[in-house]
Amino acid sequence: MDGDITEAAALRYGSGQEMELPVITGSEDEKAVDIERLRSTAGLVTLDEGFANTASCRSAITYLDGEKGILRYRGYPIEDLAEKSRFVEVAYLLMYGDLPTAIQLDDFSAILNSSSLIHEDMRHFFLAFPNNAHPMSILTTMVASLSAFYPVPENPNDEEEAQIIANLVSQVRTIAAFSFKKFIGEPVVYPSYKLRFVENFLNMMFSSPVSSYEQDPDIVKAVETFLIVHADHEQNCSTAAVRIAGSSLANVYAVISAGISALWGRRHGGANQAVITMLRSIQEAGDDGRQFIESAKNKKARLMGFGHRVYKTFDPRAIIMKKLCHRILGKPGMTDPMFEIAMRLEEAALSDDYFLSRNLYPNVDFYSGLILKAAGIPFDMFTVLFAIGRTPGWLAHWREMRHSENSRIARPRQIYVGPLKRSYIPVNLREKHSVGVMRRSRTKIVVSKYPEMADPSGEMPEMG
Ligand code: ACO
């Protein structure tokens, strides 16, 4: 379904002119005013900073209703997929539109396995990064570098496209684990054909030449579920970046690297880390949560993991993550006092008018950091895990776009608010006209090692 034209919106502009704009209705009855002819007919463009009211494409991949707390991949509720599916099945579903049959799943798993090794020469790249390089900086660089080793034909056929998809889904995971090994100064562990997707990742992360890694089915399930609930979220910041970069027909490895770069920012992929930092500070302050809630209400702090641009009720992913926390952290020896604090915070917030009147409910990040922490995933790898989960979603959007008849290069307009035309000033006369934009300064610029961890502006993450 391409969105039917069901009605029209009337626009009055200028000195009494009027034009009719078609209204498109999606399969879940959501409506959009189609402004394709707006500029050519009325000489107008729309201004929507942050794209809060703009649908950038038609897509059949993910449906999200923020008012009702609904999230579906290809029509399947996220709750069913999280409970019953494996990540590899969900990746197939996002990519190809249907859950795989047993044979299709075997074939897909086989191609993922056979594509899991990165070219051996690429392993040497890891040596060139500084010790303790952040895993996200390695991941984004290495994924862009894949294009040098796996040339992409100008117009890949179905088989070539399937291989590209398998390379990326599988190798992002391998690179992620290798970058962690670099981070901690251990030799890399190669992927194994004998292990499934998540087990393979955990083995590459936690086994070493001197010790094996014992898989815990509950931890495997926890990581699997984390990856599934992060696999797609329609037109969020990084997916929009993928679509924009991909619309120029750039190399797909560079396109996915653009998605990873966009995800890295603290408004997007960093919120699960921010929640753990917040819970730790509450724990260290000996606060039972009440003081923090008061600070949040007085705007001195933000209750991280609460609120969402789209969800105005419970984020369905948060409900899944909370249940999982109960299961994992309820096991003997697995308890985490931070989970108690999180539940107390949630209870206090959900009985407080400040949060209720603003529709502030827990989002996926409120509990997902606790899951990763319980699985032994190091703090600096949280965003990397998000990237592994989101890779099939990015690729599904890239694939949908390249097969769409409506695909055009993404090229937004702007409203220019700069100076009007002025006369050129020769360099020797410029001093007295200078407005001092670029003065020479002796100020030393201090660059934080991990700028994404710092939050000098006090600005908090927001993610899709
Ligand atoms: N704690 C306290 N107050 C909050 C919070 C919060 N977490 N979130 C929003 N508010 C308040 C704002 O101060 C504002 O109050 P006001 O009306 O008195 O000015 C009101 O609620 C509306 O907030 P906005 O910031 O305008 O909402 P917006 O939709 O732009 O922001 C966002 C959404 C960025 C997610 C915000 O809720 C937030 O910062 N949450 C914490 C960070 C976080 O958890 N991010 C992850 C998002 S989801 C995800 O990761 C998948």
Oligomer: single chain
Number of domains: 2
Q: What is the name of the CATH architecture of the largest domain?
A: Orthogonal Bundle
Q: Which regions are unreliable across 5 or more consecutive residues at pLDDT < 50? A: 445-463
Rg value: 24 Å
From the 3D structure, determine the CATH topology of the largest domain: Citrate Synthase, domain 1
Mean pLDDT: 91
Number of continuous helical runs: 19
Which strand order do you get reading across the main beta sheet? 1-2-3
Number of strands: 6
Q: List the secondary-structure elements in sequence, H or E.
A: EEEHEEEHHHHHHHHHHHHHHHHHH
| Helix/strand class | mainly alpha
- The CATH homologous superfamily of the largest domain is termed Citrate Synthase, domain 1
Shape: globular
What share of the residues does DSSP label as strand, in percent? 5-15%
The percentage helix is 40-55%
Which class of the largest domain in CATH terms? Mainly Alpha
Straight-line N-to-C gap: 25 Å
Explain the overall architecture.
There is one protein chain. The chain is mainly alpha-helical. It folds into 2 domains: about 70 residues, Rubrerythrin, domain 2, CATH 2.20.28.60; about 375 residues, Citrate Synthase, domain 1 (Orthogonal Bundle). The protein is about 45% helix and about 5% strand. The protein is built from 19 helices and 6 strands. Strands 1-2-3 form a 3-stranded antiparallel beta sheet. The protein has a 3-stranded antiparallel beta sheet with strand order 4-5-6. Strand 5 and strand 6 form a beta hairpin. Helix 10 packs antiparallel against helix 18. The protein is globular and about 75 Å long. It starts with a strand and ends in a 62-residue tail after the last helix. The C terminus is likely disordered. The site of acetyl coenzyme *A has 19 residues, from loops.
